[in-house]
Each structure stands twice: as C-alpha cells, then as structure tokens.
Amino acid sequence: MVDRELLPVFVYGTLRPGRGNHARLLRGRTVAEEPARMRGAALYEGPGYPYAVADPEGEILGEALWLPADRYDALLASLDALEGYAPGGSANHYVQVIRPVRLTGGDTVRAWVYLAEEGLAARLRLRGRRVEGGNWPE
C-alpha cells in the first residue's frame, strides 16, 4: 500500500452522501461527513459522473469525508479502484492530490481529491460540458 497522509477525502459526485457509490462503499464507514467547497477546480460532465478539472477561477461543492484510521488504507483503496486510479500508474483517468477545502463552519482543511489527469482535463476544457455552479447533479 502506498503511504498516504490520513486526510479527509473531498468528494463531489457519486461518492457524496445520498448517492449511489457512497451507499455502496462508504455509508456507515466514515467517522464524519461535512459539506465543503473546493476552489481552484471546475466540474465537467462525464459518462454518468463528473470530472473535477483544475481551474483557478472554479469552485466545486461537495463533502469532506473523514475515514477511520483503522480502515483508512482499505477504504481509500476501494475509492482508488472505483476511480480507476493506481498510485504511480501511467494509465489513470484521475490523479489524487491534496487540496484545501473550506468546511461550512468556515474552517479550511487539507483533503485528498481526485482530479482528471492532465490529458483528459485538456480535452474536457476544450470540448467538455462544464457543470455550472460546481454542484453535480443540480
């Protein structure tokens, strides 16, 4: 397993509470969940899910999810598998990065987030459909 900081995960699509992949992979398995915003990225429509793309003017609405330390690696590995992300892999659709997210109470925390890898991000910026308001689906 790759050594990663035990940070919350910022989710913005099907992993958000109340949505399908959250129910399948995370419901009842998180320590805490809080609505949050992430600046510096925009959402683009994907095939049934969104892609977050780095964008200095963008903002995404989502949730910060805290995972229990004793199951952190296993839960993060299940999210990696869902996202088609292999740490250090060369054929990823996403990259996993640390970004600041602002919680509803105003505090800012560092969180893991999956962003579209740069080749895909460039295609989305050129021909993709941006999710206005940064809230998917709305």
UniProtKB/TrEMBL annotation:
Pfam families the UniProt entry points to: GGACT
Domain Gamma-glutamylcyclotransferase AIG2-like, residue spans: 9-136
TM region(s), chain numbering: none
Protein name (database record): Gamma-glutamylcyclotransferase
Organism field: Streptomyces blastmyceticus
